[in-house]
Specification:
- By secondary structure, this protein is an all-beta fold.
- Helices cover 2% and strands 40% of the residues.
- The longest helix is centred in the middle third of the chain and has 5 residues.
Amino acid sequence: MIANFFVVSAGMVVPASAADVWKQWRGDGQVGVASGDGYPTQWSPSESVAWSIDLPGIGASTPVISNGRALLTAGVDGQNRLLCIDTESGKTLWSTRLGTDKGGKHRKASGANSSPVTDGALTFAYFRSGDLGCVDNEGNVRWQKNLQDSYGEDTLWWDLGTSPLLTEKAVIIAVMQSGPSYLVAFDKLTGKVLWKTDRVLDAPEEAAHSYSSPLLVTIGDKRVIAVLGADHLTLHSETDGKELARLGGFNPTAQRYFRSIASPVVHGDVIACPYARGSTITGVSLSALLAGKGKDAILWFRDDIGSDVPTPAAMDGKFYICGDKGVVTAIDAQTGKNVWQVELPRSRHAFSSSPLIAGDHLYLTREDAITFVVGPISSAEPKLVATNEINDAALDTVASLAPIDGDLLLRTRESLYRLSDSK
């Protein structure tokens, strides 16, 4: 029901212009930075909500935005569905089936956790059932296949979390689990397999499982895919998937349950890798790793901060890390040293959504759908400037905020809200 009415390189991160879209989870460059300013910092159930809708099913994926439309996934009546929502009105434009919903194991998750990715003409969605589909702007299925039917069953202990990665020619999926683990690239237009490379590493038991998403980065003149999981960071060729470099040591004592959820994030030449169930974060020089320097590519290591689930954001020479209990830390990307730290109010609810930088503020949404706004983040000592609630009974909000023309889209387990500055 409708209620009220970046390319990443080893040298730089360029945010999208205000006219550009939010094509993938974490946005252009996969750094969690919205372009422009004027985003709302305060809202309530009765203020600054342009519209809200009840979604037809359950999901945890973050919306992607293109052509004035929000695209997100859900399990609806036993079916995997890709939904297309008009961002001006909240009206559902179409809903396309992509296989059978496998449901979720964990209370916070579902069979529709992975966020879709779009190039503006085609959208790609991936589900826990193994179904991967390509859909055009009218909701027509261009091609569809099931990775588990082709390459082996899902052996993850919990629910699929990795989101697809889009390149100029391909859509790429990372599968990291016990047994068959691999990267596979499909032609965007036809679904033909372009390449597949095994990624079977020596991580013990559940540590072999990863829910993180791969990154596309440029190092010198090479476009490279970076993948974190199974106790290793690996770099792969974009053109054929060949492994170019490998860094282990993220689990030196071989802990059996170091599954990884948070994805890495890149700023300049540095990739920040959250690991050890939120206990560590490591900064690695991409160029040095690609040059074969191994552990000497590590620039810094922290075992006093980290993030188990939220993926850090990156901007202006800093990484912004949200711990699962709400300790927010900005660190220098080159040195790993603290720039500032803010502790959010304590609660029994954790943080699973990833932080968003919009304007001079950092937005952090807790699982009870309360969003905290910290800023100005350019100052020496940012403060908590707003605590925002919505009228939503769901306590398992894990999707991240998505920016749209100076507004924000908030997706809870069963609803979608457009938040707009009412001033």
